[in-house]
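EI: anyone free to look at a 196-residue chain?
SC: sure, send it
EI:
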Amino acid sequence: SFDKTTAQINSHPFTIEGAFYLKDSSHFLLNVSSDNLTFENATQLVPHNIQRILHNFKISNPLDVLATIQGPMAAGTTPLVNVIWKIKNSSFSTTAIAFTNCSFSGLFTNRVDKNLPLTDENSEVLVSNFSGYIGAIKLVSKNIIVSNLITPVIAFGMQSACNFAQLDTTLSLSSIRFVSGNAALNILYNGPLIND
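SC: here you go
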């Protein structure tokens, strides 16, 4: 085993600690963490098939990341990977929508079902306690789940309470005007993350 040590990965400092067990069934355990890591640098640390999905997102502010990687040391095996991160007061955009002043925490795992192999199909990204703004409208969501990273599916429920003036300004519709009153929004979606 080795204590915390600092290593440079893509010119950014990471703290690494862990252990390698060589007796009986040889295996390893690594904890890797970094603060103020740009999203672009974070995407460079994952396999290309995961990068393909992450390139659909843009996050302006740095994030704090902690990854735990463990598994057998035999060639051709896949380790168990769990990554958690936190984002505060950042802009966040996808190919379809853009949020400002976002805060949320996230978790990636490649073992959703413990009875299945560690694969992209058995992987998931869970975003918790999301809050962000589209224009003047604040949206919140308890959980946003992206599952099956081969053909990713996203599921979420988002809620908002706003007034009609905020809704009118944000939507900027030419054929409809929202003049006065209040709105309670509940947006549910379960479907493809990426349009082919």
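EI: The longest strand covers residues 80-93.
SC: 👍
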